[in-house]
Amino acid sequence: MLLSLPGVGQRKSLYAIHQGNYDDKPLHYGFFLAGNYTKFKRHYSQAFITGMDTAFSINPKGAPGFGLGFIASYSIGKYVDIRLLPSAAFYERSIDYLFNKGTTNTQTIESTFLELPILLKYKSVRRGNVRMYMVGGLKPSIEIGSNKKEKTKDRLVTDNMDLTVEYGMGFDLFYTFVKVSPEIRFSHGIRNMLVKDTSPYSRGLERLNSHTVSLYLFFE
Questions:
Q1: pTM of this prediction?
Q2: Which residues contact 91 (CB under 8 A, 6 or more apart)?
C-alpha cells in the first residue's frame, strides 16, 4: 500500500489545474513571436484586360516573414476579451512580370510595418488546462522602413499604409507560471496598396491587396 502512494501523487501532479484563478484578473500582459507567409492579390486594369498593356502576365509570389510584439488583453465578459497587440512585422512580397517582347522582371518589395491589431477574443469553457478560442477584428498598419525610397518608372511602388480584416483560432495552454497560446490567423487587406503611376509595372494593375497567413505563439 505504501509503495502505491508515490504513483498516486504523480497522477495528481499530472492532472493538476494550473493557474485556476487566472480569469479572476481582468487585465493580462505578455509578448508574442510570429511567422507569416504573405503575397499580394492582384486586380487587373482595363488596359491589361483589353491587351493594350505591354505586360503579358502578372503573377504575385508569396514569401515568408516574421514579427514580434506585445499583448494587452482585457476581459469584457466571461467569454470575451478585447486585445491590443502593438507589433513590428517584416514582409517580402514579389510580382513576376512577363512582357510581350519576351522579357521578364521580378519586382520585390521588402518592408517593415508597425501594426496595431484590435481584436475580440471569444473563449470556450476551460477544460482542465486547455481552452479553445476564436479571434476577429481589424489591423491598421503603417510602414516604417523598406527598400523603396521614391517613385520611379523603373519599379513598382506600393502605399505605406494598410488595413486588414483579421480572423483566426487558437488554444490557451495553462502551465504553472505561464499561459502559452499557439494561434493561426488570416489577414485580408481591404485597402488598395497600389500607387498608380506611368511605370510598366503598375499600368496593368488596378488594385493590390495584401493577404497573409500567420502563426503566433503568445506568452502571458
A1: 0.86
A2: 36, 38, 63, 65, 109, 110, 111, 112, 113, 212
